[in-house]
Amino acid sequence: MEQKLHIYNTLSRQKEAFEPITPGRVGLYVCGPTVYGDPHLGHARPAITFDLLSRFLSYARYKVRYVRNITDVGHLENDADEGEDKIAKKAKLEELEPMEVVQYYTERYHDYMKMLNVKSPSIEPRASGHIIEQIQVIKSILEKGYAYESNGSVYFNVKKYNEDHPYGILSGRKIEDLINNTRELDGQSEKRDSLDFALWKKASPEHIMRWPSEWSDGFPGWHLECSAMSKKYLGEQFDIHGGGMDLLFPHHECEIAQSTVDNGKIPAKYWMHNNMITIGGQKMGKSLGNFITLEQFFTGQHEKLEKEYSPMTIRFFILQAHYRSTLDFGNDALQAAEKGLNRLSEAMENMENIVASNTSDVDVISLKDKCYSAIADDLNSPILIAHLFDAVKTINSLLDGKISIDEDSLVELKNIMHVYVEDILGLSLNSDKSEDSNSKMDDVMQLLLNMRTEAKQNKDWATADKIRDELQNLGFVIKDGAEGASWELK
RNA sequence: GGUUCCUUGGCCGAGUGGCUUAGGCACUGGUCUGCAAAACCAGGUACGGCGGUUCGAAUCCGCCAGGAACCUCCA
Question: ipTM surpassing 0.85, yes or no?
Answer without folding.
Answer: yes
